[in-house]
From TrEMBL:
Regions of this protein lying in the Periplasmic compartment: 22-96
Gene: ftsB
Keywords: Cell cycle, Cell division, Cell inner membrane, Cell membrane, Coiled coil, Membrane, Transmembrane, Transmembrane helix
Annotated GO biological process: FtsZ-dependent cytokinesis
UniProt name for this protein: Cell division protein FtsB
Length: 96
């Protein structure tokens, strides 16, 4: 009878081990839920960035104002007759 009780106890512990520690365990489910939440946050940020880029592309396709603004900002475009003023921060100028 003692052997039967010992075998049943071992079998119970083996099944509980898989439940708590093995594949599909509570710890793994919790870890996967955390990963899912992190991935959903990344996806939301990327969707926001994609919408912003889509708006920028649409603006550049629609008219020349978007292209001009992009050229002014990124390339420093100035038109004929305009004067370019560059203001330096005094702290930056002193450190150079």
């Amino acid at each position: 009878m003692k052997w039967l009780l010992a075998i049943l106890t071992i079998m119970l512990l083996a099944t509980q081990y898989r439940f708590w520690v093995g594949d599909g365990s509570l710890a793994e489910v919790t870890r996967l839920k955390r990963q899912l939440t992190q991935q959903q946050e990344k996806n939301t940020a990327l969707e926001r960035e994609n919408r912003q880029l889509f708006r920028e592309v649409r603006s550049l396709k629609v008219g020349s104002d978007g292209v001009e603004a992009k050229a002014r900002y990124d390339l420093g475009l100035i038109k004929e007759g305009e004067t370019l003023f560059i203001f330096l921060d005094t702290e930056e100028a002193e450190s150079d």
